[in-house]
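User: Could you go from structure to sequence for me? I need the amino acid at each position, not a summary. Structure tokens:
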């Protein structure tokens, strides 16, 4: 197994909650239903972001930032479907722009007769076979296969999965309760993708039956860590339009 894979996996597990929180303020998924507007509130400026397009019907507006950021704020009706189902096409489109993670073929690394190791202790369970490993630490599930690492931080309504490989990381965080929903999808590359993007993704929040307010973002420049500027501004655009 690649040296340092455990450190990378654990670092991703610890930071995933912070990463998703940076994109949007937490909500109570079982609390009072959130309210979303019939037409979006799209200010001319929100922090570093400047509005460049606004639809006449108030269904979407586009913003641009000084460091290669592009954001589209939109109203997303669900029409009786689940939020995950409605967002699936957007997720596929974004992944095509930044395919940072390629899951290994099943069984590809388990049939090489590699050394088998098992550790079973309270709260810690490890099983390795050659270049593949499965770890569960205090409820955090980590699967490593060669150069790829998956981290699953499932907790009740909230499910956060981090998938990291040689090209970058994919973060999916979905929290869907009885009354409200919050969904985040981030693809962060460690090099510019052929599409020209370094980071793409979306944040969507609102009542579980819709409509959701969705902010899709794309960045053509590399960012070091989470900056309060663009990501905080994105969260504030959502919070203008999602009320408790």
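Assistant: Here is the amino acid at each position, in order:
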């Amino acid at each position: 197994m690649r040296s340092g894979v455990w450190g990378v996996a654990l670092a991703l597990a610890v930071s995933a909650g912070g990463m998703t929180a940076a994109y949007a303020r937490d909500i109570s998924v079982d609390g009072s239903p959130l309210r979303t507007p019939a037409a979006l509130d799209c200010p001319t400026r929100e922090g570093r972001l400047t509005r460049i397009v606004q639809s006449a019907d108030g269904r979407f507006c586009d913003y641009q930032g000084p460091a290669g950021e592009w954001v589209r704020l939109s109203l997303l009706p669900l029409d009786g479907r689940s939020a995950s189902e409605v967002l699936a096409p957007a997720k596929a489109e974004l992944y095509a722009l930044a395919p940072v993670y390629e899951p290994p073929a099943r069984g590809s690394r388990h049939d090489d007769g590699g050394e088998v190791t098992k550790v079973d202790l309270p709260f810690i369970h490890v099983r390795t076979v050659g270049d593949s490993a499965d770890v569960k630490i205090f409820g955090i599930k980590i699967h490593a296969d060669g150069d790829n690492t998956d981290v699953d931080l499932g907790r009740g309504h909230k499910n956060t999965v981090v998938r990291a490989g040689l090209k970058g990381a994919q973060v999916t965080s979905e929290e869907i309760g009885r009354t409200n929903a919050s969904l985040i999808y981030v693809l962060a590359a460690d090099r510019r993708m052929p599409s020209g993007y370094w980071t793409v993704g979306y944040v969507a929040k609102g009542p579980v039956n819709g409509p959701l307010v969705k902010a899709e973002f794309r960045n053509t420049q590399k960012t070091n860590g989470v900056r309060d500027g663009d990501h905080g501004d994105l969260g504030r655009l959502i919070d203008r339009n999602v009320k408790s």
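One structural detail worth keeping in mind: The CA atoms of residues 224 and 244 lie 33 Å apart.
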